[in-house]
Amino acid sequence: MSQAPDDRFHPCLLTREPAERPQTLDEYRSEGGYQALEEVMRAHRPEWILDRVDDSGLRGRGGASFPTGRKWRIAAAQPTGEKHVVANGGEHEPGSDKDKHLVRYYPHKVLEGLVLAGYATGAHTGWLYLIEDMAPQLEAARAAIAEMEARGYLGRDVLGTGFSFEIRVHEAPPTYVAGEETAALDSIEGGPGKPREKPPYPGQHGIGGRPTTVNNVETLAHVPNLLRHGAEWYRSQGTEHSRGTMLFTLPSGVRRPGVCEAPFGTTYRELLERQGGGLEPGRELRALLPALSCGFLRAEDLDVQICHEALRELGTSPGCGGIHLVFADEDPVAKVCEIAAFFAREQCGQCPPCRMVTSQLAHVLGQVAAGQPGDFAAHLAKVAEFGRGKGRCSLIAMATAPVLSGVEVFRDDFVARAGG
Questions:
Q1: Angstrom distances, CA of residue 309 to CA of 63, 225, 235, 304, 316
Q2: Which residues, including other chains, have CB under 8 Å from residue 150's CB and lie 6 or more apart?
Q3: Which of 37, 90, 116, 139 has fewest C-beta within 10 Å?
């Protein structure tokens, strides 16, 4: 359940209060929803949107943090014709629930952003890409789309402007890699949902060979507020290189777990204490993992600002905001082994380097956990270096980041387990 936000995070919020059911179209409109779409469609050309998204500094919230305006311009620059936009809600990373939360309780925020992305890039077909086991999200999304169609926000003549746009819901397979952007295109086309080689990039050659823009659902949910209040307003929140707010999923171990929102520049200590209510009684924090595919932070690093530039200096990133905590009474070696096993299990099997790297990481860590002596750190580093830059997607890098940093942060534990 989402927690009531700290007042200082107002007004750039995607989630305003604990939610119990999906927000209806009328409820969304009562707080300014669809105002951006109505104004843009009647008074502005696509270039107006592109300029403001560029100026806002909005970056992708799926983990890669690619500049949204730059991505949109790739597809917008392609010759006119059939184009697509995709709201990627294929969230299947353990510990992350923010996309599921948005689609279930605030579907209109995502869908308005999707229509605006379509108008800006010249697309007339939008896809809401969800995992087939997301029953509440699928139900909420389809109900919201029906409301939009009934009120003229979708169809052949959106709001009487002559612009046509439809939204289709796609149910993807329940695999981790199916959430990667080219895997989403593969699934929509009827494939197994596996990553494709790049280039060509989706903005040039996507669904059916047509230009396709793929954004995380949280990214799109930011767009209506951004356009309604202006790029300068959006840039006023966050840091110089990380603008706006971000959704986080706080895990068990804090008093108020669940999805919350904070501006970039907030520290992890503030996030845990202000939004999470602090740690549960008797818990002592040893380390924090910003997301499963990132590097660990030591407890003494909790006062670092949550932003790309500050976290990069510590060898990690905000990721998708699905936070994991390691407490003093837990076995960190087992935790790192679990992460490695997850990536070894979830790799799709297409790329030999990925199969080798993920299986070797899990194998070497398994030997350490079993108490077998050896220079495990050097072996892990060699495996990671072999896989650098290889594979059709970034899974190798995502798998190696928590393993290498985990071995460093918990070095004494690993050395002791491996026989000293």
A1: 14, 25, 16, 10, 10
A2: none
A3: 139
Given a cut of 80, whether residue 19 has pLDDT beyond it is: no
Residues 6+ apart with CB under 8 A from 268: 288, 290, 297, 301, 302, 303, 304, 306, 323
For the whole model, what pTM was predicted? Answer: 0.94
**Pairing relationship of beta strands 166-172 and 125-131 according to DSSP bridges:** parallel
Q: pLDDT of 286-306, one tens digit each?
A: 999 999 999 999 999 999 999
Please indicate whether residue 15 or residue 159 has the higher confidence score (pLDDT).
Answer: 159
Q: Over 96-133, what HEC string results?
A: CCHHHHHHHHCHHHHHHHHHHHHHHHCCCEEEEEEECC
What are the structure tokens assigned to 284, written together? 């002592």
Flag whether pLDDT at 5 surpasses 80.
no
The 10s digit of each residue's pLDDT in 46-59 is 999 999 999 999 99
Cβ contact 262:248 at 8 Å: yes
Alpha-carbon span 72 to 114, nearest angstrom: 12
- Residue 203: beta bridge partners? none
CB proximity list for 148: less than 8 A, separation 6 or greater: 25, 108, 111, 154, 167
Mean per-residue pLDDT, 315-319: 96
The pLDDT value given to residue 9: 41
Structure letter (DSSP) for residue 2: P
Calculate the alpha carbon distances from 221 to 20, 92, 102, 353 in Å: 19, 19, 8, 36
Cα 332 to Cα 354: distance, rounded to the nearest angstrom: 24
Q: Which one, of 322, 397, 401, 410, lies nearest residue 369 by Cα?
A: 410
At a CB cut-off of 8 Å and minimum separation 6, what does 367 contact?
374, 376
* Rounded Cα–Cα distance for residues 189 and 176 (Å): 18
Q: Which residues pair with 18 in a beta bridge?
A: none
What local confidence, expressed as pLDDT, does residue 420 receive? Answer: 59
pLDDT at 11: 44
Give the pLDDT of residue 210. 97
Look at residues 125, 92, 91, 87 and name the one whose alpha carbon lies nearest to residue 108: 87
Assess contact for 223 and 69: CB atoms under 8 A.
no
